Amino acid sequence: MDRTEKKALVASLAAVFAETSMVVVTRNNGLTVADVTDLRRKVRAAGANYKVAKNRLATLALDGTQFSGIAPLLTGPTALAWADEPVSVAKVIVEFAKTNDKLELLGGSLGSQVLDVAGIKALAELPSLDTLRAQLVGLISTPATRIASVVQAPAGQLARVFGAYAKTGEAA
């Protein structure tokens, strides 16, 4: 890789770090090509990205960004995963690390907040943004249905009373 390619890589990574909200750092301890391909496919399906970058170049790209706190994690064979929606990337990486012991989770950063392994795992246990939206819609619509049933209850009771009088009138 020559100097211009390195500058282009640093610039592209710096642009990514300026736009994203979450970065996860992993260590590849002998992952096969098939494993990495499977991981990349799962990460892409979650709307995130996964890239193996030279640690020195990634550290240069981190300088001056909100993610500069993860620079000490960039030692050895590392890879970066990032996304705008933090829960999805954390879930994918944590789930893959559970099934493949050759992927080691080192930590990450949610904005300027540096997270350790426990923090990434806790983030992965949160419901996704779509699930939270569905729960919020459910909470909002529940009172409306309760109000409708309360408003309809007196009319229903009145109809039952009239029906009961009609039956007693027919019986007599």
From TrEMBL:
InterPro entries: Ribosomal_uL10, Ribosomal_uL10-like_sf, Ribosomal_uL10_bac, Ribosomal_uL10_bac_type, Ribosomal_uL10_CS_bac. Keywords: Ribonucleoprotein, Ribosomal protein, RNA-binding, rRNA-binding. CDD domains: Ribosomal_L10. The keyword RNA-binding applies. One of its GO terms (biological process) is translation. One of its GO terms (molecular function) is structural constituent of ribosome. GO terms for cellular component: large ribosomal subunit. NCBIfam families: PRK00099.1-1. Belongs to the universal ribosomal protein uL10 family. Part of the ribosomal stalk of the 50S ribosomal subunit. The N-terminus interacts with L11 and the large rRNA to form the base of the stalk. The C-terminus forms an elongated spine to which L12 dimers bind in a sequential fashion forming a multimeric L10(L12)X complex. Forms part of the ribosomal stalk, playing a central role in the interaction of the ribosome with GTP-bound translation factors. This is Large ribosomal subunit protein uL10. It comes from Acetobacter fabarum.
